[in-house]
Amino acid sequence: MTTKTTGSTSTTHTAGPSPVPREARQRAGGLVELFGEPISIYSRRQALDDGVLVDVTEMAKEAGFKFSVAITRAAWADCVEWSDEDNRRQTYQDEAGRLWDVLWMASVAARRNSGSELRFQMYRVPRGGRGVRPRLVTLQMLCGPGDEGEPVITIGLPGED
Fold first, then answer.
1. pTM given for the model
2. Which residue of 58, 61, 147, 153 lies most exposed, with the fewest beta carbons within 10 A?
3. CA distance 79 to 61
4. DSSP for the chain?
5. Residues in Cβ contact with 51 at an 8 Å cutoff, skipping those fewer than 6 apart
C-alpha cells in the first residue's frame, strides 16, 4: 500500500493497477476523447517491477532478438525455474539452460512465422515429482507496443495477457 500526499490531498492506493498518470493520459491523445478516461493503466514497467514479468532481454539478444523480451511469471515457473532440490530429486538442469531453450525455440518460431502473435512448442522436464522425461508445452509469443510505443516481446502460456 502506498500513500501519496500532494498539497492538502492525500491518496492511498492498494495493490493492483495504479491510477492513470497525467503523462499516460496525454500520450493517449485522441483515444481519451473517443473512449473516455481510462479507469487504470498497468504498465509493462510496473509488471516488471512487481515480478509479474521477468526481463530476459540480455539472453534474448544472444538468441537473435532485437527487441526487449520478457517472460510471464507463470511461463517462467513452468519452463525455466529449477532448483538444487529439483536437481537432487529429478535430473540435473539449470535455469540458464532452460531459459536458453525457451528463447532459442521462440527465436526459431519467430524466423519461420510472421505476425504479432504466434504459438510455439518445446519440450521441457516438468518440475515436481521424480519425472525426468521431457514433456511438450505450448507457449505464446506476443509482439506489441511497450510503455513508450517501442516494440516489445512477451512470452507466456496460452491464455495469459
1. 0.76
2. 58
3. 19
4. -EEEEETTEEEEE-SSSBPPPHHHHHHHTHHHHHH---S-B--HHHHHHHTSEEE-HHHHHHTT--SEEEEEHHHHHHHT---HHHHHHS----HHHHHHHHHHHHHHHHHH--SSEEEEEEEEPPSSTT--S-EEEEEEEEEEE-TTS-EEEEEE-TT--
5. 73
Residue 88 cell numbers, joined = 537432487
pLDDT digits (tens, 9 = 90+) for 40-81: 888 999 999 999 999 999 999 999 999 999 999 999 999 999
Distance CA 156, CA 140 (A): 5
Of 58, 57, 54, 64, residue with least CA distance to 160: 54
Cell of 9: 490531498
